[in-house]
Amino acid sequence: MVLLHIGIDDTDSARGGCTTYLAAMLVERLAGIVKFIDYPLLVRLNPNIPWKTRGNAAVCLRTEVSPCLIHKVKEETISTVEEHAEIGQPRTDPGIVFLEGEVPREATDYARNCVRDVVSKRNSMRLIRKMHAEAVGYGSGRGIIGALASVGNLLMEDHTYELLAYREPGNRGRPRRVDQASVFRMDESTRGRTFSNVDNERKRVLITPRGPDPILLGIRGETPADVKDAFRQVIVEEDVERWVVFRTNQGTDMHLPPDQEIASLRPYRPTTLLGIVTERPRETRGGHVFFRLGDRGEEVCCAAYEPSGRLRNVVRKLEVGDYIRVAGGVRPSRGRIPMTVNLERVEILNLAPKVAQGNPTCPNCNKRMESMGHMSGYRCKRCGLREAKAEPYVSTLSREIDLGVFLPPPRAQRHLTKPFSRYGLEKTYAMSAIEPFWGLGADVR
Ligand code: ATP
Fold first, then answer.
1. Per CATH, the architecture of 262-351+399-415 is what?
2. pLDDT at residue 431, rounded to an integer
3. Across residues 236-246, what is the average pLDDT?
4. What separation in Å is there between the alpha carbon of 333 and the centre of ligand 1?
5. What number does the ligand 1 atom closest to the CA of 116 have?
6. How much is the pTM?
7. What are phi and psi of 139, to 5 degrees?
8. Closest by CA position to 372, among listed 356, 360, 364
9. Bridge partners for 40 per DSSP
10. Which CATH architecture has domain 2-154?
């Protein structure tokens, strides 16, 4: 038997389609001829890539195949992509990568870069040649970048699972019929085992996407058993065509690098910065909040945009001198707007004292005195008392924020953002027998 890794990316367009659905169909087609050695992987790549369609996802199927069937498996993969990818649509440039044998270190390094950096197709092709892998591209073939990234991403560190259920073709484009109350109940009963099911602030269900794609719902959780159990608890009022459990890097913060310096920031990368607030937050008409952060003599603009909801409540209360760690995507400068960190997470490490200063009060009439000029003392307008040595009063005001980590509400979190409910649940992956991970219809074993 030979190890064969199959990576696929960039098969969908804004009009529809979905790379995970294509993978789900390929799983069914390959089921009789390969042995799956891992769950299908759903790998989220750099979320700041400007040419992504939606969530910058790529998929990988890891298989063991008899040498005489390798050709058939590749043919089956190519024909599934050709039948179902939105080839010819703008910004749809599918890519497939086949790698035989163990995944080399260079591929895992490359994969990490694809989550945190911008990678060129030329470098991807160089690595493909070096590894004697094979690539198939359509359009510009840009999908090869993500396809190779999914092959290289072994997800041996923190990882999660997502059960995706797909709609019957006739229902696509229509409102999704999923009982909302049952989703809130499922969220309660699987707390700590699943995440990002609902946004309690807005009482909104998050497991059902919007738009014309074939996904009916997606439930994220810690183990395959958790997401399957959660799915059984949701009341679905339309036919389910198929379901698949993917292993993913969603909800792991994998995109966030260790602390960086402002001087090293580059556009379209995620970043983590440790610095001091150098300019008080100001709010613009659309409800976006901006402030400046500094480190080692450099400064950068940070933004909490309106969709980041309650994260703005914290950002609004920052003061000059606060010591914080921020994480987010770097947007390039545009016209008069400087390079900006689009905030996904704020950690307050130390709060600067907030002081109020004012003129002293008159000891005779208890009224505020007025200044007689710089270093010239104060005078009481009412009784005429002059105090050459009086000092302005200074009082320390209480800060209305606490130290700690702050995130946007679940509805505004990125796929890769680790939600609070996962803090402390991080785990590594140990290859072991895999449980049934796909099926046709709604019955989940
Ligand atoms: P969906 O979530 O619906 O699958 P998408 O948001 O994943 O869509 P794609 O249509 O796959 O978006 O487009 C992303 C494109 O960017 C792909 O061609 C992929 O190869 C490429 N890409 C992904 N990560 C990087 C990266 N780090 N550097 C350069 N290109 C990348």
1. Beta Barrel (2.40)
2. 81
3. 98
4. 22
5. 27
6. 0.93
7. 60, -130
8. 360
9. none
10. 2-Layer Sandwich (3.30)
